[in-house]
């Protein structure tokens, strides 16, 4: 793989590299880690890359890598830049013949996401989006049990993702991560909801199998001087008539990455927390609550396929992230060999999730600014590429 972004001082780039390396299936061979040439070269040297495979311009990287023999060039591009660069880099990569795996959100706005969807369809190349919380073994188990009807008809979904790291004006103190995430030119029209609320929305749809159909939104910015939201709450209506709530906050003092999901049907419910990812609770009205644990023999095929170590050994964020990388790598390999991707490989967020995520972010902001209570999610038709598990 090649990487754009993720150089010195970047947080998520290092996470991506660790996740990609866990299974030994992916090699980082090149990168444009910074637009500053010296910084990009220092980053590449620290990663033990040859100087001639380290670039300061992503367009040069696409052109020069494409000119290399197939046995040497990168096969896919990982995008870990601020949001405003996601679309132009993805466009350049796809049009140069490279598959793309991008950090979320996919683009700066919905218009770009829809154009990206067209480019993916036109090129026929693979596109993946890193919503890593879908990679946890017990999230796979929760999804499978709901799909099998164990909880019955889903009635209620509650999800929350709270952090406290932006409770104060970190951007005024030179915090690089805070600065770009709160800059509309780099982050887009939403701060908190675009950064972590979209993860919560994606997780809800992934696990429940339902689609958000309508929202009622209330976003705010508590820290003076901010142009983008740092807190928000939403009411949700789903396509089967179920109701839900979604809360996202980056000003909840003392919280770390407190992602919590609860789903209730007419037969039972379940609960999962990111801070205790190896435990899934199943709740019933006619028998005791059950505790499921990662690595146990009683879990299903999907959970087992995404588990690496025996029961009792914690698997966490990096392993969940790595599950997406492994699935995407298997897609690339299947494409290279002219084979159909396996069910496991296909279970990786793609262009459909990319478009829905941007639609969700824009709807959350628009609904919050409106006096109208309920707002419909736009109808987003999947492309032929999406139905082919890309």
TrEMBL record:
Domain of life (superkingdom): Bacteria
Domain called Gfo/Idh/MocA-like oxidoreductase N-terminal: residue spans: 2-129
Transmembrane segments: none
Residue ranges of domain GFO/IDH/MocA-like oxidoreductase in the record: 140-271
Name of the molecule in the record: Gfo/Idh/MocA family oxidoreductase
Annotated source species: Candidatus Litorirhabdus singularis
